[in-house]
Amino acid sequence: MTANHAASSPALDIDAVVHRLAAGEGAWGATSLSQRRDLLLEVCAATAIHAQEWVDIATWIKQLSPDSPLVGEEWISGPYALIGYAQALQTSLLRLVEGSSILDGYRLGTAPGGRLTVQVLPHGMFDRLLLNGFHAELWSTPGTTEAELRAAAGLGQRTPEQTRGVALVLGAGNIFSIPPLDVLYQLYAENRTVVLKLNPTTDALEEVFRAVFKPLIDRNLVEIVTGGPAVGAALSNHPGVAAVHMTGSETTHDAIVWGSGPAAVAAKAAGTPALGKPMTSELGGICPTIVVPGKWSTADLRFQAEHVATQRLHNSGSNCIATQIVILSSDWAQKDEFLSELRQVLGNAPTRPTWYPGTADRIRSARVLHSAAERFGTGRTLLTGLDLTDPNEPAFSTEYFGPVLGIAEIPGTGAAFLDNAVAAANRRLHGTLGANLIVHPKTIAELGSRLRTAIAELRYGTVGVNAWTAVGYLTPRATWGAFPGHTPEDVQSGIGVVHNALLLDHIERTVVTGPFRPAPRSVLHGEMTMSPKPPWFVTNKTAATTGRRLTEFAAHPSWRALPAIFASALRG
To answer: Where are the beta strands (DSSP E) in 308-403?
Structure first.
């Protein structure tokens, strides 16, 4: 189905699409676990074949120079992420085929509040080498037992014959692995055939996605359509569509669930949604980075300034998980030094266009509402002096989805500062997708168990400690989504999770940790980690080469490929 045809006659074409997927559902229910695993391997192979084309088109969409190191973002958040996920998911299916528990061999532990943990990174020797010093663990909901985790592991693949209808995925328009990852989660975790409606910003990738999903499209398990809001609305409300998943904005979510205008207001007040079917979502939010005061070297200040700037400038700030508010201690003796380093990075990081639709207007709005806003060219904006006690501060409730970074200060040091910062983030910032903590190793030792307690208190779906929460996005066995508990009436960062290649239930959050310093400086300070500056840093000079080599390695792991990856990474 062509994009023009979909836009001009959505009802006729949509009926045909849903009919094909309904027929495919029957075939999917009869497909063995072994065959389902083989299909994942075919998708993985197809992604590797079309990876360069994918990245070339993504580079064009985002108006990047083909020789820019920033092209590395498109490798790592594009085909690399999809290949890694397909590989991890097929491993889980292999466990089910063999009749063993998906959780066998995974390290289980405990976290505050009666939670269990499952270590999902590193997974195997290659992770230990390529992501040395990075860790990720899943935290269960309080009170979950190991028996309950094991009993539910596998989700829809525990009973593959019990399919659950046709799902609609409304694809994201900012990070190009999101739509295919969401498709695979619906197909495997939820056991539904899937129609993917592309965001118009990704229409140029339609043929690449068709090539990647050809093994599934040929079996009527997946369909891909393009078009505007009318196509999405018609699919959402089609009687043959059993469920909807979207990645996007809270405004779009509410329009789908409740409708528009006065009728939507009345429906929301009455709790009677216009959409009469389940809907899951990932909707972004106002993500914080809490910088815990300590005694840092000049090199520490510079590296962590690059870290924070990356959390805002990656993809020109058009990330659901981008940091928008940095919480500092007004009593930190090095606060001004840190801000000076941050300003230098904001001013000197590679220039790029603000490519995502509407970004320029959102930047303009932020600057108009903050007369003291500092400007660094190409839209980069720093808002200082934000007051976390101000109930009317727009930066705490409006997701700018662009290179706008806010600074808020509260008093205190040590555990007292950390506790107050956590409380402020929970209370004042809209959304629960992800939160970051930056803590010097000596401060971590001083905090002791108080750090884990603070992580438990943060109501966020992913928490990063000295690692950007986007590492959780790239960890295929981690869950990705809002903190549980949102409702359609107050959806904030969304409902449900995706990724989750272990297909686990009863998971509350992902916690990722990383090295405070890059190698070789980390080793000189007694940290036994060998990771250099991460390739996702916007200041990494070899990110494009490293990203391409990592993608090739993900598709075809080989010891012989490691030296070239290490050589590129160390030059970053």
So the answer is: 323-329, 374-375, 381-386
| Secondary structure string (H, E, C) spanning 398-465 | CCCCCCEEEEEEECCCHHHHHHHHHHHHHHHCCCCCEEEEECCHHHHHHHCHHHHHHHHHCCCCEEEE
User: 359-363: which pairs have CB atoms within 8 A and are 24 or more residues apart?
Assistant: 359/316, 359/317, 359/318, 359/401, 359/402, 360/402, 362/398, 362/400, 362/401, 362/402, 362/404, 363/400, 363/402, 363/403, 363/404
Q: Comparing C-alpha atoms, which of 311, 355, 39, 54 is closest to residue 176?
A: 54
Q: Is the separation of the CB atoms in 457 and 353 below 8 Å?
A: no
Euclidean distance between the first and the last CA atom of the chain, given in angstroms as a whole number: 43
pLDDT tens readout for residues 381-416 = 999 999 999 999 999 999 999 999 999 999 999 999
The three-state secondary structure class of 535 is coil
pLDDT at 5 > cutoff 50 = no
Q: Quick one: pLDDT at residue 494?
A: 98
User: pTM value?
Assistant: 0.96
The first and second tokens of residue 185, run together, are 């989660």
Residue in this structure with the two tokens 């506790």, named with its chain if needed: 419
In the chain, the amino acid numbered 129 is: L
d(CA 149, CA 139) in angstroms, rounded, equals 11
Alpha carbon of residue 464 to chain centroid: 12
Given a contact cutoff of 8 angstroms between Cβ atoms, the answer to whether 134 and 512 are in contact is: yes
Give the CA distances from residue 423 to residues 91, 96, 111, 457, in Å, rounded to whole numbers and listed in that order. Answer: 39, 42, 19, 8
Which residues does residue 438 pair with via DSSP β-bridges, in sequence order? 291
Within 277-358, residue ranges assigned H as helices are 298-313, 335-348
Is residue 363 within 8 A of residue 400, CB to CB? The reply is yes
Which pair of tokens denotes residue 328? 């500092």
For residue 226, the one-letter residue type is: T
Q: Which amino acid is at 423?
A: A
pLDDT digits (tens, 9 = 90+) for 151-165: 999 999 999 999 999
The tens digit of pLDDT for each residue in 180-221 reads: 999 999 999 999 999 999 999 999 999 999 999 999 999 999
Residue with tokens 């009436």: 489
> Phi-psi category of 481—alpha, beta or left, where left has phi over 0 and alpha has psi -120 to 50?
left
**What distance in Å separates the CA atoms of residue 229 and residue 197, rounded to the nearest whole number?**
10
How far out from the chain centre does Cα 85 lie? Answer: 13
Give the pLDDT band of residue 524 (cuts 50, 70, 90): confident
Q: Which residues contact 238 (CB under 8 A, 6 or more apart)?
A: 14, 15, 18, 168
Distances from the Cα of 255 to the Cα of 5, 168, 232, 249, 273, angstroms: 24, 16, 11, 10, 10
Of the CA atoms within 13 Å of residue 333, those in its CB half-sphere come to 5
Return d(Cα 393, Cα 396) in angstroms, integer: 6
How many CA atoms within 13 Å lie on the side-chain side of 552? 15
The tokens for 309 are 């700037």
CA-closest candidate to residue 513, choices 475, 479, 551: 475
Of 141, 160, 174, 167, nearest to 479 by C-alpha is 141
Query: In angstroms, rounded to a whole number, what is the distance separating the alpha carbons of residues 317 and 404?
Result: 7
**CA atoms of 442 and 447, how far apart (whole Å):** 9
Phi, psi of 539 (to 5 degrees): -95, 5
Per-residue pLDDT at 145 = 98
Tokens at residue 436, please?
């970051």
Q: What is the mean predicted confidence (pLDDT) over 484-511?
A: 98
